[in-house]
Amino acid sequence: MIIILLFITALTVKAQDDQKFSPEKFDAELQIFIINEAKLSPQEAAKFFPVYREMQTKQRGLYDRQRKLVTQTPNDEASCMKAIKERDEIELEMKRIQQTYHERFLEILPASKVYATLKAEDKFYRHVFRRYNNRNKPQFNWPQMPQKHGNQGNHNNHK
Prior knowledge:
Elements: H1 2-18, H2 23-38, H3 42-71, H4 77-108, H5 111-135
Helix pairs in contact: 1-5, 2-5, 3-4
């Protein structure tokens, strides 16, 4: 969920920078990827994707609310508490939507194909996020972990 939010935020920023991002193209690529990865027949895809898009529409409203929260900086304890509770509520609502739609998917497809679609969706977002992140490095300056020196990993030092 957080990865998807970060990804959507990054795409929004990227789209504002160069106006090349197309939501229609992105959705089409996602759909093709899911069809191929989950091995959906044309009939299965025709039944599945209208319900899937309905779920995405409901989730987008929550992503928008969450993105708005991320951009705010509460300035006192009460505001921080309110923001935490709102964030938690959004995440719980997201899970309720997923659960409801997963049950609907199971009415359309066998469980193995529903599982494959969920896995494909995750894989698609990871792949696109990685591709986007690699194209725009350095995005963050993460602190480096100190390297330990010595014989680590080399267990053939016996003479």
